[in-house]
């Protein structure tokens, strides 16, 4: 009987330990602001979803580099709550170009933090062992993952690239002197074949090894404690098992997400399927004690003038889900067709204003002290 009680106590403590790791960053040494952002995103996602736009404040439709400008702000009066940026300029370029990219991005991230907004960081990582850039190009690209993971011949080179990211992460401080928290989303859309880290070019074990080493080296070796780590495949899954095929484990991920353009008008209008896949993501996050997000979507040129409420909002509200944010892709500076958020005069502006005004969506002006322990004015 005593042995049974002892076993029960051990199992109970083990269960409590696992439960204690839920709904908090995987980095036990995460900065206070990072922990608060995580906690507040989790709370907000019960009733709201933050709206995000990639490269929103760096450039837009017909402009670039204007201070405190975004196409979303020009339409609504508020910047997006989440601004997407990219580390694409941090490697594969001459040193002076890399320094310039880091300086420019540092200021952008700091400005967003000082305004009270949130930054999510993608990484279109130029192939470190061959040509081809971040895309996979037949006869040019090499399957770099096996070269850069521990034991690979380019592992030291990868560590050097990560050291550059770590140094930059340590250098981004707001006007309050605090390190700026970032949602770091590397190796996205890994279930497709268009990137060199994609499914056809690396095994599941190799991908998991890459993810785990990246987190370990940044967090534990380089002491980067202002990252929230986001895992986001494309939409090529129809079950939780398929979604988790290359998942490195709960101890290595803070946020689970999905990129999905195909079901939202690019290839077809299938709100039911798109919403079902989002629910798989949200349900897993709820079960595992993680954040969830709709990490990329959009309809290029937005030809459907009611897309914002009749497609995007409808999908996100069709089931009970907890989604921290939804992000649409960028507005190109020069292209007359490559844009995903409205600009002044666009035909979808009236519907976007309805989307903006819906209580479910939050923009930057709606956020109050998201980096503090308690948020004001929303609950």
UniProtKB/TrEMBL annotation:
Signal sequence, start to end: 1-19
Keywords of the record: Carbohydrate metabolism, Glycosidase, Hydrolase, Secreted, Signal
GH26 domain segment(s): 32-365
Binding locations of substrate: 124, 194, 261
Catalytic-site annotation from UniProt: 189, 296
Single biological process term from Gene Ontology: substituted mannan metabolic process
Family note: Belongs to the glycosyl hydrolase 26 family.
Record-given protein name: Mannan endo-1,4-beta-mannosidase
Organism of provenance: Adhaeribacter rhizoryzae
